[in-house]
Specification:
The complex is a heterodimer. By secondary structure, chain A is α/β, with parallel strands linked by helices. Chain A is built from 7 helices and 17 strands. The two termini of chain A are 15 Å apart. Chain B is built from 4 helices and 12 strands. The chains are: A alpha/beta, B alpha/beta.
Chain lengths: 320, 202
């Protein structure tokens, strides 16, 4: 079976945090302990939505050392493909669900002398776990958290009251934004930068840091790409000998799974590289959406990441 | 020209490139002997760089050959010292009080590059973010794996450990933590059967 190991859980608590964000807490059905994880890890939540199985990644935001429950916070996306809406509208306390073992593609580099965190909106979630981890080891950290307004800033009150000197809030509604250039300038040698938020924020922060001479090795970011809907297309799976139709709102990976083909995956967000698939034949345009393949590989037309990328054309044959 | 291109070897063996200007807020150079040439070359490509730079230079056996040239480069802060250990407290202090955006350039012998890299790593710079260019002697800093003693500037193979006296085979196996290559007893299986020492890379 692809992906990491699975854990059967029951929804133990649902907390509405604001108009858009809801926290879901889970307990194991078998009564065993959850594995500990490292701050920044995510879990893949399986949702049985009628006939389709959705598998969406969410950052674990509970205490990484708490083995009794896991928690995620989900932002409702009314324009998305329906995963977050399903969580908000259909999931009830005591429902059975399936989570994957934690996978971390956004871990702290513990060689850092200081951890400088930049969060935008729901991008706060991985930092919730990282801050708990760093607190336990008396780590040196600082969080700069930007949100639309005080009423839409999940966990801001808790963070500020627990860490008044380390948490800095910025609200669009108050016309306050992160003065990044001055923030980066003067950070002690050995500082690592972590960014989680919308793509624009990640590009901006990474660009500023690189311009100021920060090495790539100390710049960490996480952006989950939700697979974007697109024109339906057909794909031939050569090893399984199956012709699969990919619908408008499903991803190529989801269509492959729907046909019962066990394809590898881990993050389902274009970041980890697990689902990389060899293209045998292609006549048409690739719509590469991942940030795993190098530009050169994308141009080579020999590889595709089916978790987020699509195809528009006559023929696509994959080695799967 | 004092460049030497080391033949391809095991992965552990450090490799070097030419120093290149990179965007940054401040610049720190650590060099010994012919390593000064790499600084002089870089300064001739980018005239403004030196006025923002701190240079720590150890002439070793080159006397005043390079110090006079360095003094003419309009370097913001130039320190010339007798040995790496004499310069080490200055380097460590400079690193601890530096900020992100510092670019570190190392040039000269492998012993100098390795030790400065180690101090920089301890200060929090990823080793892959440090530029280093080998110049001058191919002598290397060796650790005897048996007594752990360090012998500097080894340019023959096998060599005699300056601490325990064993004859050691010069390996390319390198430790960033120790800033040294590993020397292994060459006559362990047949005591006394020690090949004649040859110059490295000859």
């Amino acid at each position: 079976m692809s992906g990491s190991e699975k854990i059967n859980v029951k929804v133990s608590k649902i907390v509405l945090l604001n108009d858009l964000v809801t926290r879901f807490e889970f307990k194991r059905i078998d009564g065993e302990l959850f594995p500990t994880f490292s701050g920044g890890a995510h879990t893949i939540v399986e949702m049985k939505d009628g006939g389709i199985t959705r598998r969406n990644p969410y950052s674990l935001m509970s205490d990484p050392m708490d083995q009794h429950s896991y928690a995620i916070s989900v932002r409702r996306d009314d324009e998305g493909r329906g995963g977050s809406l399903f969580m908000h509208n259909n999931v009830k306390v005591s429902d059975d669900m399936v989570l994957s073992y934690p996978v971390n593609l956004f871990s702290l580099d513990l060689r850092a002398k200081k951890h400088l965190m930049i969060a935008g909106g729901i991008g706060i979630t991985p930092f919730m776990a990282q801050i708990k981890q760093l607190d336990r080891s008396h780590g040196n950290w600082e969080l700069h958290y930007s949100a639309r307004s005080p009423s839409l800033s999940a966990y801001a009150d808790d963070l500020v009251s627990m860490h008044p000197n380390d948490v800095h809030m910025y609200y669009d509604s108050e016309n306050k934004s992160i003065d990044l250039e001055n923030l980066l300038d003067g950070q002690p040698l050995g500082t690592h930068l972590y960014i989680c938020g919308p793509k624009g924020m990640i590009d901006w922060a990474v660009g500023q840091a690189v311009n100021l001479g920060w090495p790539n090795e100390v710049i960490h970011y996480e952006e989950f790409l939700a697979p974007k809907p697109g024109k339906p297309f057909q794909v031939m799976l050569s090893a399984s000998n199956k012709l699969v139709s990919v619908g408008e709102t499903e991803s190529l990976l989801e269509a492959i799974e729907r046909e019962g083909v066990d394809a590898p995956y881990l993050c389902r967000g274009g970041a980890c590289g697990q689902c990389e698939t060899v293209v045998i034949e292609a006549e048409g345009e690739f719509i590469h959406m991942d940030h795993w393949l190098e530009d050169k590989e994308k141009l080579s037309r020999k590889k595709i990441m089916p978790c987020v990328s699509r195809f528009d054309g006559k023929t696509l044959v994959l080695d799967r | 020209m004092s460049n030497f291109s080391f033949p391809e070897s095991i992965k552990s063996r450090p490799t070097y490139a030419r120093l290149e200007p990179r965007a940054g807020k401040s610049y720190l150079f650590v060099a010994d002997a012919e390593g000064a040439e790499a600084i002089i070359d870089l300064a001739s490509n980018d005239k403004s760089l030196m006025s923002k730079s701190h240079v720590i230079y150890i002439p070793k056996n080159t006397g005043k050959k390079y110090t006079l040239q360095l003094e003419k480069l309009n370097i913001n802060q130039l320190y010339i010292g007798p040995s790496y250990s004499a310069a080490q407290s200055r380097l460590r202090h400079t690193l601890v009080s530096s900020h992100m955006g510092l670019q570190l350039y190392l040039s000269g012998t492998e012993g100098l590059i390795g030790q400065a890299q180690r101090d920089a790593m301890v200060a929090g710079i990823p080793h892959t973010a440090i530029q280093s260019e080998h110049r001058g002697s191919i002598g290397r800093r060796m650790q005897c794996v048996h007594c752990k003693g360090i012998t500097e500037d080894v340019d023959i193979d096998p060599y005699v450990c300056s601490h325990c006296g064993l004859s050691l085979f010069v390996r390319d196996h390198y430790s960033r933590r120790l800033a040294a290559f590993q020397g292994v007893c060459i006559d362990a299986e047949e005591p006394g059967n020690i090949p004649t020492a040859v110059e490295l890379y000859k």
